[in-house]
# Entry
Amino acid sequence: MFEFGCDAQGRVLLIDEVLTPDSSRFWPAGEYQPGRPQPSFDKQPLRDFLDIERRAGRWNGEAPAPQLPIELVQATSQRYQDAFRRLTGLGQTATNERWITWEQIMSSLSSWARSQEASSTV
# Structure
């Protein structure tokens, strides 16, 4: 689902995430198995942790949130970085050196789609 708003001049603006691991639920195709939970690239482990904290009565769901275990922060960061690398074809250093353009992402996805088409016709 996309969220839009209007600026002071009445122009429609996209105001939230688009096609991210959280909004689109990307899954690794090679690991997909119907009828069971899928490995994914989203922040579900973070959601699960916060839900456990709420159910245990250690957090009421309002700010401030509980301190997150460093392992959870690192694992969540790794999931997003993995999705980024798979979608863009760019390595680790690319994220730290410059912005990635929509054209680069689409080019990478197009290359991947062509490789999938080629492998399915063999």
Summary: Residues 45 and 75 are 9 Å apart (CA to CA).
